[in-house]
TrEMBL record:
Origin superkingdom: Bacteria
Biased composition (Low complexity): 66-76
PANTHER family in the record: DNA ENDONUCLEASE SMRA-RELATED
InterPro entries the UniProt entry points to: Smr_dom, Smr_dom_sf
Region Disordered: start-end pairs: 46-79
Organism encoding this protein: Roseicella aquatilis
Protein name listed in UniProt: Smr domain-containing protein
Amino acid composition bias (Pro residues), ranges on this chain: 52-65
Annotated ranges, domain Smr: 114-195
A Pfam family recorded for this sequence: Smr
Length: 202
């Protein structure tokens, strides 16, 4: 007989507890799907195979940052004299000997004359620019500029000293072919041979 202190459950082992069903992980599901696709496994009636996993799209590549480009510098127009310094009393390159000799000897007579006596340097500089541009525009070939020996309140000879610098500035140098003193004993007056203006004269 069984002992009274034993219950029936102690004589027979209790049925094993059902294991909790664990679902497939994403990796296992993908592996199984690939296997069934390659092995051509047919699904059971009423069942369908899981679709093949699609590869993840690569992340978009960010566009490179663009920096605003600096505006292109405007090209400077080339000057006909190509930077050759004009020296008063010296034959310039490109001018034929006959024309230079005529200018240096005073045989080429100036058609217009600008007298700078009594002008301050700043006023004289503006007058020279205006005078030469107008003369070249009008087709004048030879002009004279009288600097003198200075005026009251100025350093003696300041205009005579500054005139060569003004003539060699880019705004005036391309207008000139040659420069000579009006006479050997008169350095206070300069004669200038001008280039012909471009295009037909109006």
């Amino acid at each position: 007989m069984p002992r009274p202190d034993k219950v029936a459950g102690d004589w027979f082992p209790a049925p094993a507890r059902a294991r909790a069903r664990r679902g497939l992980t994403e990796a296992e599901r993908a592996l199984w799907t690939l296997y069934t696709a390659r092995a051509q496994v047919a699904p059971l009636p009423g069942k369908a195979l899981a679709p093949l996993p699609q590869p993840a799209a690569p992340p978009p590549v960010p566009a490179p940052a663009t920096t605003p480009s600096a505006p292109a510098a405007k090209p400077k127009p080339a000057l006909p004299h190509r930077g050759v310094e004009l020296q008063i009393g010296h034959a310039p390159p490109g001018l034929d000997a006959r024309r230079w000799k005529s200018l240096r000897r005073g045989e080429t007579r100036p058609e217009r004359t600008l007298d700078l006596h009594g002008r301050r340097a700043q006023d004289a500089h503006a007058a020279v620019r205006r005078f030469l541009h107008e003369a070249q525009s009008d087709g004048v070939r030879c002009v004279a500029i009288v600097t003198g020996k200075g005026s009251i309140g100025q350093e003696p000879g300041v205009l005579r000293r500054e005139l060569p610098h003004w003539l060699n500035a880019p705004e005036l140098r391309h207008l000139l072919l040659g420069a000579a003193h009006y006479a050997a004993g008169n350095p206070g007056a300069v004669v200038l041979l001008l280039r012909r203006p471009k295009g037909p004269r109006g």
